[in-house]
Amino acid sequence: MKRKTKPERTGNKIMKTFQLIPTNGRKSFGGKCVVIEAEGHKYLDSYNTRVATITNVGTLVLTRDENHLSNTTLVHINTFLEFYGFPKMTKKEILNH
After folding, report:
1. How many CB atoms are located within 10 Å of the residue 27 CB?
2. Which of 22, 36, 80, 87 could cross-link to 44 by cystine, CB 3.0-4.6 Å?
3. Is the pLDDT of residue 85 over 80?
4. Rounded to whole angstroms, how far apart are CA atoms 80 and 83?
């Protein structure tokens, strides 16, 4: 899976941001699905809202705000999960996670 990488420096810490590439046949998410890797954590921002985190110890944290779980954001979350080796989840599974 291709990704556009952009390393950035915040203070003494380096973080990397990139856009995920869809796995459902689309060419891109149009910049609306951004991953940030910093200090071993991986964050997913969908439409500039943090909706998922994989901590530096591998714990998956997902939003429980149903207002943040549009169909498009669910596609973003599942692409993020697949990219990092987690199984896809339904909206109900995410809300109950």
Report:
1. 7
2. 80
3. yes
4. 5
Cβ atoms 48, 85 nearer than 8 A: no
The pLDDT of residue 2 = 44
pTM of the predicted model, to two decimals? 0.85
31-56 burial: b if 16+ Cβ within 10 Å, else e: eebbbbbeeeebbbbbeeeebbbbee
Q: Which amino acid, one-letter code, is at 46?
A: S
Q: What are phi and psi of 91, to 5 degrees?
A: -60, -40
- DSSP H or E segment with residue 81: helix 71-83
Query: What is the rounded CA–CA span in Å between residue 24 and residue 3?
Result: 15
